[in-house]
Amino acid sequence: MFRHFIFFNLFLINISYTQDLVINEIMSNNNTCVLDVDGEPSDWIEIYNPTNNNVNLNNYTLSDDPNTLNKWAFPNINISSDSTLMIFASGKDIKVGNELHTNFKLAASGEFIYLSKSEKQIVDYIMPVILEEDESYGRLPDGSTNLLHLDICTPNSSNNNTNQLVFSNKPGFYNQPFNLYIQSLLSDTIYYTLDGSIPNTNSYLFQDSILIYSRDFDANHFSEFPTSPHQSTIDYPAWTSPSEIIKKANIIRCISYRNGQPSSKVHTQTYFVNNGIEKKYNLPIMSIVTDELNFFSSDSGIYVPGVFFDENDPNWTGNYFQKGIMWERPIHVEYFNENGLIKFSQDAGVRIHGGKTRAAAQKSLRLYARKEYGKKYFNYPLMGNNNINQYKRFIIQTTMGCWGHSIIKDVVSHNIVKNSNLETQDFQPAIVFLNGEYWGVHTIREYIDEYYINDKYETEEDVEILEGYINTCEIFN
Known about the structure:
Elements: H1 2-11, E1 22-27, E2 43-49, E3 55-56, E4 60-63, E5 72-73, E6 78-79, E7 83-89, E8 95-96, E9 99-101, E10 113-117, E11 121-126, E12 136-139, E13 147-150, E14 165-167, E15 172-174, E16 178-180, E17 182-184, E18 189-193, E19 204-205, E20 210-212, E21 250-258, E22 261-262, E23 267-273, E24 285-289, H2 292-296, E25 329-336, E26 342-353, E27 364-368, E28 393-397, H3 409-416, E29 427-434, E30 437-446, H4 450-457
Parallel strand pairs: 7-9, 15-23, 24-29
Antiparallel strand pairs: 1-2, 1-12, 2-7, 3-6, 4-5, 4-10, 8-9, 10-11, 12-13, 14-17, 16-20, 18-19, 18-21, 21-22, 21-23, 24-25, 25-26, 26-27, 27-28, 28-30, 29-30
């Protein structure tokens, strides 16, 4: 207990406050957070007045150049006590009504930003920080010296309207059990779940810590849902109950509430605990977390036969044969390399992918990045052997389509013709966990559509894609 107490104190963030105007929040990669008077997503800088008096900005300047601190000067306006003022860093150098624009832009790759007065006295500055699309960086609480990446952007309003959760341990591999501590920077109430569902006020109340341990001996749950008809009725391997306890991971989803309303985003993190864990896996791991109903509900689950299954046509009916946006479900996906280091983590959408293999026990999944989920792209070189660093969509492909032939024939056939004048899909084998349960080895594949063509060939021209069907698993028979 004593060691836990010391650790938690080291984990707590020290918060202090300044006595002058501060740069309270910035965004250097704005896309949808806020639009300027021209309807453009210009980057922005927010100033906060933590003092007890109104401050006239006539002698204050903003700059991204330490040698030219007076690069852009504020007009003769006031900022009230305990108030914010947002300035667009658009390079337009205009004032339209109360809307201000600097004569310089912000670099998404990061640069110093200076707030000065009397042309030579630096009042505050922000060090270079790389921000993802629509991610802001600022102080929480307002005016404190505590700077961090913020979950929710709050241009021209108090950062205190939201909250931030900080975790004592990053997701990934751990050899020994440990207690996970979570801090709410604004002391809001934290609720959490352990089953993939979205937490709310009816979920577990976080009080002290959460024990993260090896779950390999916990009873199977999600793998006990039948995901296909009986083997005698379909052409691909059918679902059977696992013959043993399968590998598992800890999945934590948590959120903070204030006055009965959510005050933070939902945080989702996966922890793998096992002695010698660093030698256990030799492939990347993809952890998919979602509410149980999204995959396994008879009415709306996309992974089960469900209400759309017709026993007279077992190979081509079932919930998993439903298509379109109405059968896309929200998930959170984390990607870990072979050493258990997390490479990306984000909310996304998922649909069942494929043709007749949808009836197989293990199914291919198509993942979608959308701004509605938070990020427009998966920003990571998933394949590792090409120059594509972002994906709008990609596939996690089952090997069951080649069952009875060879589970690697599809990727081998693509690899054989890779240097010919044909379009092929790159691949990366990966281990998939679904809601913390081992879901088997899949193959990450590119999804060939207009986004793939535009990203791979760096073109936005109209492209016609002619679709056909070739069973690559039977090519070599």
